[in-house]
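LOG
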Amino acid sequence: MRDETLRKFDRIAGRQVRPLGALEAGQLGKIFEVDAGSTARLDERVPRLRTRRSLVFVWHSAEEGGLLGSRYMVDHPVVPLDRVAAQLNIDMIGRNRCDDPAEANTVYLVGSDRISTELHNLNEEANASLPRPLALNYDLNDAADLESLYTRSDHYSYASKGVPVIFFTTGLHRDYHYVTDEVDKILFDKVGRVAQLAYSTAWQLANLDHLPARDRRGPRMGKGRTGRL
């Protein structure tokens, strides 16, 4: 049953959608993993959530133009950001990093520890509860990561406003932003497993009786680090 007090406190799930103007002639319908894969998983999961806390689902556009969609959202939020429990960002979850088969069980997490240790631990527990837990890799969360993925996707707009975030991704590959990124290269079982982790984390967040503590201790998880804090 929806809690009338908790429903005032929200959890946001986000997803990147490329604006059509960013696609050149002949590209429409391609670049599958960057856009369609995670969007489909978010679409598919929306009707299944029945929680105590209100939920907000957002499809952000113009990420590669400078996080324009998510920046607009946090500057003109549909709910006050101090009432948002967390923002979960899903982007590129359908391939293995560098197409390496050894990465079949791996998902990369970025930002989970930076604003809320409690959120990081909750996600670890959600993963452990799954029938087939994933290998949670924090290499891309390392403060020394040259890719700086923490600042490059839509979750960063929320993090810059102090909202706890988790960015779920399976990493870059050779077809990133190329028309060779076709549907037949998507690992649908992996998409489902990562989506289940995000779903389980969202479920736990949305049924907490409090907001995750914002202790703002910065990046501690990185290369070689795993587990709870």
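LOG (cont.) second protein
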Amino acid sequence: MTLSRLVPLVCALSLAATLSACDDDATSPTRQTQVRFINAMSNSTSLTLSINNVPLGGAQVYQHFTNCQSVNPGTFTLTVSQAGTTLLTTTQTLDSLGKYSLIATGTTGAPTFIFVSDAFVYPESGRALMRFVNAFSGRPSVDAFVTPDGSNLGASVASNILVGTASAYANIPNDRSRVDFAPNGSTSTFAGQGPFDIPNRSAQTTIGVGSNTTFRVPACY
């Protein structure tokens, strides 16, 4: 049997076909994607993401997340489970060299998935990138503000973030800052976090969950 016939057979039989490099062209370089799983499901105990029935990065408690994991590009069945019980199943295409965050949110009784690309261009020195996910309960649309201490909100850095979606990355100073959320078109904040230090040229996501909880997750680099 020739090498060109052996390679797809090995890919089909090996666990590495899903979570590590294997290509039906033996001369092609590996072009893997990066995936991070985030548990933003407010009443969960711990959740596990599986890709084609292979667990990715271990179980994560609420407001925790996996490291960025390498996965072959392709179209996969993604399953989120709690203590062996499947809560969510969806199909997603992961592009070659892509970077993604997979966010489980809602509740165990009404679970949802938010699937976002982590692709970004590094900002200049003295700046950073931050985007915002609206997974709040009962907040159909929100605005996000980044300020030194929240006392003078000024203009929002991201507006009209619909529930179940993420904003684009906002280019912000890498200063010690606070993040606040308000209903779209308002400056009456209902959730916030900080002040905290924002690393130079970093990229991160602030996720709003429940009624007024927020937490931050770094992008896959």
